[in-house]
Design brief:
The chain is mainly α. It has one domain. The protein is built from four helices and no strands. Helix 2 runs antiparallel to helix 3. The protein is globular and about 30 Å long. It holds the Pfam family DUF6952.
Amino acid sequence: MKIPAIKKLVETQSLDELMAAEAAIVDEQPLAIEVEGDDEGEQLTHVLAAVWIMNYMQDNGADFKTSLREYTKKVRVSIS
C-alpha cells in the first residue's frame, strides 16, 4: 500500500470511476483510469482504500489526512 498512490486517486478520480476500476480489476479487464501498483493486488488495494477514504470524507466532512488516518487504523486492527 502506497499512500501517494491512494492520495492521487482521491484527488483525481470520482467515486464512480474508482468503482468501475475496482470492477475491472476483479474481472481482469483493462482499466479506464491509471492506478499505480506493482500488480493487480496492489492496484486493487489502492482503489479500495481510495473508495473507503472518499466515502469517509463525504460521510464525516473530514479532510484527506483525517480520513487516511482512520483508514490506516482500520487496517492495523484487521491485521493484528
